[in-house]
Amino acid sequence: MKKILSYALLLLMLVVTACQEEEFVNEGGQDEVITANSEMAGYLKANSVNHGTQDDFIDGMSSVSIKFPYQVIYAGTTYTITSPQELIALRELYFLAGNLEPIKLVFPIVLRFNDYSEITINSEDDLIEFINKEHADSEEEFNDRIRCFQIQFPVTLLTFNTNLEQTGSVAVSSNQELFAFFNLLPSSIIVKIQFPISVKYRNGETVAVESLLQLRSLMKECKENWQSDDSMDDDLEGEWLEQAQRLRQNLLSRDWYVNKLMKDGVVKTEYMSSFKFQFFIGGAVKVTVNDHMTIGKWRIEYEDDDNGGIELKLRFNDEIWVLNHIDGDWGVSVIGESKIEMNEDEGNILHLSTTPLEGGNNQQFPSLNQVLTTLKSGAWKIGSYKDEGEDFTSGFTGFQLQFTNLTNVSITNGETTFQGNWSAQSLFTTMSITMEFDTDHEFVVLLNEQWVVAEYSETAIVLQEYDDEGISGPRIVLQRI
């Protein structure tokens, strides 16, 4: 990670080497000056930090921004983002389309922190590791930002010594320069802003500021009352805004667990009773269980249908089948400090609680190495093969499967042997196995699929077919011989 300090050092050199004019602070007195450790210096730094909210709909992280230029893939199309204007255009397309599936980043990318330092992220795995190790603490600092308006540049800063004699002036032309100036301001220098200046709010309104007292008042109000990121619909108002704000605050301030989950009237709670959900400012939600971790997106919106009300939209990687159970638009019926109750269509229920179910947090998931070692440790028979009510198990009677290295698999009935290839991969808690046999045998060809490991033990492994709709269709039970 590198610190961008050269411009800051240059600014301070300008301050201390400027002409030594024998002018004094008179107009406005002490109320109009700023010192290194003053409240106003803190406000100015909080307003001029790098604002990471503009790309929250892409990365879900308000603590950092993605440095231009970069590429993303959305709905099968690749977009090159080179400016704030192009980013705004993509954001409008994203929310107008109503397709809130996660946008895919093209790596490598450069992340810029609130202090304008940078780090290069080379892959999605690196990004997940970064979020897991650093993002949580960085997001906490987001609450200290003043982000409802921006100072319009250039702004002239007058500098004085401790005797209140003017030592010079500096023209600041960007947030980055303003942040660096006050971040490195020594205690021996006193600063006065040359007014009037103007500030521009997010809605486009521009306000003229005539004094430091007025600027301080605007910044204090903004810090105490403003919340803005892509986790909540900007058009919410009235009672729905109040409900959304309460839901947002509760989600952000606590860890959450699945207390009840039903899909199409079938209880699915046991699939996710161990999962911990952490919601971040900016729209990222981190899901952890044991040593597994993944990132999804969340957003609060108002659903203008016959019932009307607040919805919590959750989106996760389609390939993580277990999270498909909660991927959707959930109507919120109960917003409590320790529980949130939601529903989606008839028969779909999701309840979150701040307390995990008893015994749920001890749920264990095998590692990819465990599954691979078990598969390669001996021969297997197909104890069951069923697909939508049809039973094909008898077609595999007498057959044995043998997994050797991570490329070769064979199936034989003692008379005929079929050779094939296989591979395995892991994503969050989901492990999948793909088999490919070059044959048109009416039963062996049924094995040519990508299979999710739905259940695991050292003597039996249940495989379920995986497709774009999630886990469905054929189900195989492998039994060790």
How many domains is the backbone divided into? 4
Distance between the termini: 54 Å
Q: Round the Cα radius of gyration to an integer and report it.
A: 29 Å
* Largest sheet entry: 8 strands, antiparallel, barrel
Q: Mean pLDDT, nearest integer?
A: 85
Number of helices: 10
As laid out across the biggest beta sheet, the strand order is: 13-15-16-17-18-19-20-21
Helix content: 10-25%
Q: Concise description?
A:
With 481 residues, the chain is of the alpha+beta class. Helices cover 23% and strands 36% of the residues. Helix 2 (39-48) packs antiparallel against helix 6 (175-183).
Note down, in words, how this protein is organized.
- This protein is of the alpha+beta class and 481 residues long.
- The chain has four domains: 6-49 and 148-225, no CATH class; 53-142, no CATH class; 238-362, Lipocalin, CATH 2.40.128; 368-480, Lipocalin (Beta Barrel), CATH 2.40.128.
- Helix content is 23%, strand content 36%.
- It has ten helices and 30 strands.
- The protein has helices at 6-17, 39-48, 56-59, 84-97, 124-142, 175-183, 212-225, 238-253, 269-272, 368-375, and strands at residues 65-66, 70-74, 77-81, 104-106, 109-112, 118-121, 149-151, 155-160, 166-172, 190-193, 197-201, 206-209, 255-263, 266-267, 276-279, 284-289, 292-303, 309-315, 328-335, 339-343, 349-353, 379-387, 390-391, 400-403, 408-412, 417-427, 430-437, 450-456, 460-467, 470-480.
- The protein has an eight-stranded antiparallel barrel with strand order 13-15-16-17-18-19-20-21.
- Strand 25 and strand 26 (417-427) form a beta hairpin.
- It is elongated.
- Mean pLDDT is 85; it is low at 1-7 and 14-22.
